Amino acid sequence: MNSRSKKPETIAVGAGRMSAEHFGTVNTPVYRTSTILHPTLASLRNEEAARYQYGCLGTPTTESFENAVAEIEGAARTVSVPTGLNAITTAILTVVAAGDHILMVDSVYGPTRRFCNGALKRMGVETTYYDPLIGAGIEALFKPNTKLVFCESPGSLTFEVQDIPAIAEVAHKHGAAVLMDNTWATPVYFNALKHGVDLSIQAATKYIGGHSDVMLGTVSANETYAKRLETFVHDMGLYASGDDCFLALRGLRTLPVRLARHWGNGLKLARWLMERPEVSRILHPAIETDPGNKIWRRDFTGACGLFGVVLKPISEAKLTAFMNGLKHFGMGYSWGGFESLIIPANYVRTVKTFQAEGPVLRIHAGLEDTGDLIADLEAGFDRMEAA
Questions:
Q1: What keywords tag this UniProt record (predicted)?
Q2: Average pLDDT over residues 271-298
Q3: Among 347, 348, 54, 62, CA closest to 204
Q4: More confident site: 15 or 3
Q5: Residue 4 has pLDDT above 70, yes or no
Q6: Least confident residue range of 33-42, 97-106, 243-252
Q7: What is the 3-state secondary structure (H, E, C) of the chain?
Q8: Domains of the chain, first to last
Q9: Which residues contact 96 (CB under 8 A, 6 or more apart)?
Q10: 308 φ/ψ angles, rounded to the nearest 5 degrees
Q11: What is the pLDDT of residue 2?
């Protein structure tokens, strides 16, 4: 049976297992090693034949994790790298070289923008930012040296949904690769490669790890880019530790189950917040009134617990009173763990201004009881009113 004919829940449980090679154990053990001994001189010299050559080139632990992610992504090859940001930069640098031009979505994760405007510019790669809602209109921005289009859908902090198939069709017509940060939906709810993406990126720190205790990224490539990706990662000496891959693989086993709870909790919170007088609007693609809902329903099979809230105009003192007394919502970066989080959204736009009536908050709905979470937010609004 082809792996993509199985449901994500089944793939997540069984993919990447190496039980037969490890005395029947369900989980591949953690391998911590630098040196790998070879039985013969011929084996030492024949790098292509040796399954494991050296610690940073892969161990059974990293192989199990990467194979499992590749199967759920429907990819020809997945590599693991130390962080989500490293996965983004690795995917980009796999494709581009000095003198190339890239198209970058304007709603992208902030550190990705910083990489493009800093390190990538110094390397002689030009970046043009585009409106996340441009769709097939992106063709007008292509240059003869455009090598890739980078997507992130929904957009970071503001949650615009991109028309990935339309963008991919244009990009491939021009011989450009399509890269996508798919951390929000994961391959469980959006199969990026099936929708025309060439390199699918995950901050495995978030939902794949799922427990706020690992830093990790993955890049999953189709057949066209698989060897190129693997070669670049090896040339750069990139390596994710066996401990982190073990934890992330453990998280992957329950990813579909946890995502369903995050999705449900997030929707409950979003719908409750929609009725609050302090709220101007909700930024959540799974809400029927959201501008991106039509494409989300067409392309996605679910949502996660991350969404945005645009408040009506308030003073900094009122916002502070709301935030500082929250008991179940922590103020911290990242998301995708079991806990609920909330932060003010500091977004940057250079193509088209994002219109926000008041402060924008990013909320991650964790796995707590929604009644407790709602009570926490309600108490926060009471403090806001009294401030």
A1: Lyase, Pyridoxal phosphate
A2: 98
A3: 62
A4: 15
A5: no
A6: 33-42
A7: CCHHHCCHHHHHHHCCCCHHHCCCCCCCCCCCCCCCCCCCHHHHHCCCCCCCCCHHHCCHHHHHHHHHHHHHHCCCEEEEECCHHHHHHHHHHHHCCCCCEEEEECCCCHHHHHHHHHHHHHCCCEEEEECCCCHHHHHHHCCCCEEEEEEECCCCCCCCCCCHHHHHHHHHHCCCEEEEECCCCHHHHCCCHHHCCCEEEECCCCCCCCCCCCCCEEEEECCCCHHHHHHHHHHHCCCCCHHHHHHHHHHHHCHHHHHHHHHHHHHHHHHHHHCCCCEEEEECCCCCCCCCHHHHHHHCCCCCCEEEEEECCCCHHHHHHHHHCCCCEECCCCCCCCCEEEEECCCCCCCCCCCCCCCEEEEECCCCCHHHHHHHHHHHHHHHHHC
A8: 3-253 (3.40.640.10), 255-386 (3.90.1150.10)
A9: 102, 120, 125, 147, 148
A10: -115, 155
A11: 46
Phi-psi region of 88 (alpha: psi -120 to 50; beta: other; left: phi over 0): alpha
Residue type, 373: L
pLDDT tens readout for residues 167-199: 999 999 999 999 999 999 999 999 999 999 999
Strand partners, 220: 78, 200
Whole-number pLDDT of residue 349? 95
CB 80 within 8 A of CB 62: yes
Phi-psi region of 186 (alpha: psi -120 to 50; beta: other; left: phi over 0): left
